[in-house]
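Dear colleague,

Thank you for sharing your sequence with our group. We've completed the structure prediction you requested, and as agreed, I am returning the results in plain text so they can be pasted directly into your records. Please verify that the sequence below matches your submission; if there's any discrepancy, let me know and we will rerun it promptly.
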Amino acid sequence: MKKYLLLFFAFLFSYLLTFAGKPDGKTDVLRYEFIIRINDSTDIIFVEALSEVRFNTTSGYVEFDFRNSDSPGKGMKVQNVNIGGNSAKWIHAGNKLKIFAEKSFVAGSVAELKVVYSGIPADGLIISKNKYGARTFFSDHWPDRASYYLPVTDHPSDKAKVDFIIIAPFHYRVVASGRLIEESNVDSYNRLTHWHEEVPLPVKVMAFGAAPFATRLAGFAGNIPVWSWVFPENRNEGFNDYSVAVKAVEFYQKLIGPYPYEKLANVQSKTIFGGLENASCIFYSENSVTGKGRAEGLIAHETAHQWFGNSVTEKEWSHIWLSEGFATYLTAVYMEMNYGRERLETEMRQARERVLRYYDKNPAPVIDTSVTNLMSLLNANSYQKGSWVLHMLRREVGEENFWKGMRLYFERFRDSIAETNDFMNVMQEVSGRNLKQFFHQWLEVPGQPEIKISKQSSSRGVTDILIEQKQAYPFSFSIDLLIKTGGQEKIETVRVSERKTVISIKEGDIAEIVPDPHTWLLFREARN
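Please find the predicted structure tokens below.
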């Protein structure tokens, strides 16, 4: 008996050391169905979670991320587990739920597992009151917080279809990812609302919300209905502020490709983020509604995520720039094409300043595999520097090739996962260029060029302009120089790849040299 106890505790200890991380590839979740009962008398939720799992290798068990809460009085308690309707053995420890098969799951087979449990979520589902005092429930899964209340594979590389079936008191309206397929009264106090998403999603952007909502159809973007879900107390202001989403969906459809889901709901919510890009069901902070139309940039950003981040999902967290950098740059492009080139240049200059300030305190590359605190990925490297990489790539390969590549990348990896090399390969394909150096220096090397420009005139009426790179790693890039001579101005484009580059200008009396006048390069003017 002691031998078996020692083996058990040895297993349990190793089990407690594991959590999250990339799935081992042994299984693939095809579909989730979450039947969740909420109420007003307590924060306890009652859940039946069904999963269809395909086995890539023969195995005696299946494992889900499912946290053991250390918050007093909170956490999920499992009551029952079955496989295909038959009771199964299970262990819930070390932030994992491990379910054992009576006979091994055979490679290539699909099993249906059901977990029945209840408890008060420590995180992942925010049960709170909005600013008007109304009780609300909002999923808040990003990045891997769904597993506080749902047994899932909580990693972006494992995408699955999902059904949310929410049973709630009548005064709640329920919105979720997917399309609405049922609303039914189940007793004298509660209504069942069923949303179904047929497109596979990463768990981070599966969502439902329950609150006393007011709803309005803002319009159609092609055949896609765009809805506004806001709190009744600010319904007019919310409907006004969120109506711009129709324009954003139309814009990205024309620029990138078809909208990937059945509808878009823009939802006033109560979560920890200002905006959360849940698939077809975007959550915005409750204070995003002002009635003054100030949310357009935020809406454009979260809407862009429906294409990049949700439909085309980063394979690894370290490649999150494929989500946040894309959404940030596409927002700047949305502003450019709606409000003019100056707006884009303003956005990029502001982004450049944020990148430089961040680098001074955090000299890390964009693709940073050392990060373990996923929340720390919400930084200027992922957003603003990722945006700058796209902006510079746009110039590097040319306007036509860049947008052709963006559309092809979406088309090729729609509803799937991708990493940076996949995007690079598409851009090399459409441009006919070798872009390995470009992607390496901007994404895998910390920092950016630190440039010093000086000039020296000669008696022959020629001026030598010296461009020096002062940073440790020499970058390769093109830079525009605005040359001002007397009352004349002209642009010289210089290709820089060495530590020192010299060009000769025939004008001898140069009054001023302005680097990068049209904001195409991420750089800093050297301090010495």
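Summary note from our side: Residues 314-444 form a domain with the Neutral Protease; domain 2 fold (CATH 1.10.390.10).

Kind regards,
the structure core
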